[in-house]
Amino acid sequence: MRSIVTGVGAYLPETVVSNDYLAKIVETSDEWIKERTGIHQRRRAAEGQFTSDLAVEAAREALKAAGRTPADVDLIIVATTTPDLTFPATAAIVQRKLGVPVCPAFDVQAVCSGFVYALSVADGFTARGHAKCALVIGAETLTRILDYTDRGTCVLFGDGAGAVVVEALEGQGTTADRGLLSFALRSDGNKQDLLYVDGGPSSTGTVGHIRMVGNQVFRHAVVNIAEAVEAACEKAGVAVADIDWFVPHQANHRILMGVAHRLGLDEAKVISTVALHANTSAASIPLALAVGIADGRVKPGQLVLLEAMGGGFTWGACLLRL
Ligand code: UT7
User: Fold this and answer.
1) Pairing between strand 133-141 and 245-248?
2) pLDDT digits (tens, 9 = 90+) for 25-67
3) For the segment 283-312, what is each residue's pLDDT rounded down to a tens digit?
């Protein structure tokens, strides 16, 4: 059995936050942000609009694209680091808001790598026959955990959601099959101090703010991601050069291109949405995939490589044929 991506959807909240707006709050400039990160703007969720609300909008679009309804869904996984509440899981809230019948629904927390991790978990359900129609969602309201006195982080992140429908379909067991072909997932808990949130229910009893030693994360990102991409390709028996589209986590345009260069990939094969979305953590990959599909670049049957790195450190890659 193969786990096929049959529908992709995305949602961005309406409010656009420009670099110039942030330059009024912290000592920064539109020029610095664009040059060092490639970010031109980010979206911010409205007051009272929660991660689950963004997730529901993206999920509705993905279900529509797949020709499915909430009644068909038998698994919901939400990758998020900004849940509505400490519990219940945002996935259960999404289930209620969408009107999905009783089924497994839970969150995956692997920060910016969350969507790749969540896909691999969904693959475990669908490929083994435990689910027929899974919703895998990456959704974040990261602007809620930013410290707007820290220019090193508050300019980098935004809100949004992306979703895919994953369905089980029989394949031939070759790389010509549609579906999730291979994964390479990694974590190294020793790097916690370089990227973390300084609060939580069990430690401070508060939500906390994002803390990051940006330039050190940057150095690790390029090396770690490239290794995971090569490992995922090797597992599937596919050459990196055969990848049609590279859909990375959107942290920094320089990281995206650094990884592409390290892998010898043509820059034109990289879907970059960092200019308009900024870093939306677990939401960034499905958001970018949705953009690539909507503008006609990414087509059914093509080989797509997803990769991410985030707090933990966690990182990973997934090779799929759409
Ligand atoms: O999604 C999770 C993974 N996260 C990432 O992958 C993010 C990885 N890191 C990055 O994207 C980059 O490291 C940053 C964009 C965060 C920073 O860019 P950088 O080129 O690595 O700059 P830096 O941290 O080495 O800082 C260079 C200078 C410093 O000033 P001094 O010490 O040289 O005087 C910073 O204080 O830039 C300063 N700086 C800023 N200046 C204007 C840092 N943030 C800003 C800012 N505006 N917003």
Assistant:
1) unpaired
2) 999 999 999 999 999 999 999 999 999 999 999 999 999 999 9
3) 999 999 999 999 999 999 999 999 999 999
- Which is the catalytic residue, given 209, 249, 253, 277? 249
In Å, the largest CA–CA distance within the chain is 57
Q: How are the residues of the chain apportioned to helix, strand and coil, as percentages rounded to the nearest 5?
A: 40, 25, 35
Distance of CA 177 to the CA centre of its chain: 24
Q: Which atom of ligand 1 is nearest to the CA of 151?
A: 48
Measure the CA angle with vertex 102, ends 58 and 200; round to 5°: 65
Provide the whole-model pTM. Answer: 0.98
Sketch out the chain's domains with CATH numbers. Answer: 2-169 (3.40.47.10), 179-321 (3.40.47.10)
Whether 218 lines ligand 1, by a CB cut-off of 6 Å, is yes
Q: Can you list the alpha helix ranges (DSSP code H) found in 104-182?
A: 114-127, 151-154
